[in-house]
Amino acid sequence: MGNNSFFSSPLFCFLYYFLLVPNHKVYSTNTFSNNLINQTCKECADEYTVGYAYCSSSLGAVPVSHMTNLQGLALISMELALENATYTSSSIKNLLADGSFDSFSLDCLQDCLELYSDAVLTLIDGVAAFLKGRYDFAEVMVGAVMDASTKCEEGFMVKGGEVSPLTRENYDLFALCDIALCIINILGLSVPHYSYALF
């Protein structure tokens, strides 16, 4: 999960808007400090599946996250999820062309490719909705992507003893979306929190 492409993303430009618009409803002080990441990740770790260390390291790895507010952190987490989904789609294509998988695994990989391809489009729609202030719709979109990562992983479990080659990628996508959902809910403008189970 690399962050180099983050700065070439169109989403990076939108973050400058959020850098100038602090959220006064939550964390009215220290909005642009490192404390925001720590406070946010602690709350997410308490209420959601994602762990504090994963949350803080993922958000903290993006330099602009240390200068932004909650809206910016939500966008960063969605962008990281989008990068994960895009990269994983390419990885799955390479695995399908590898020639070392049996027919069952190939079918599972093909299903995962469809799930991840849809996830990319869904996340793009989710980001667009968030930027328009449609946080409720953005949360639904992010939740759908979480479900996609779980379905991909579970597909390999149908056959006993089968090991998924995408467990790490599925976990990363699930966890990054979990962070995004948490932040959207902290903003207090989304639909009520839904509970998602990892695998």
From TrEMBL:
InterPro entries: Invertase/methylesterase_inhib, Pectinesterase_inhib_dom, Pla_a_1-like. One of its GO terms (molecular function) is enzyme inhibitor activity. Transmembrane segments: none annotated. Keywords: Disulfide bond, Signal. Residues 1-28 form the signal peptide. Residues 32-183 form the Pectinesterase inhibitor domain. CDD domains: PMEI-Pla_a_1_like (cd15795). GO terms for cellular component: extracellular region. The keyword Disulfide bond applies. It comes from the Eukaryota. Pfam families: PMEI. The keyword Cytoplasm does not apply. Belongs to the PMEI family. This is Pectinesterase inhibitor domain-containing protein.
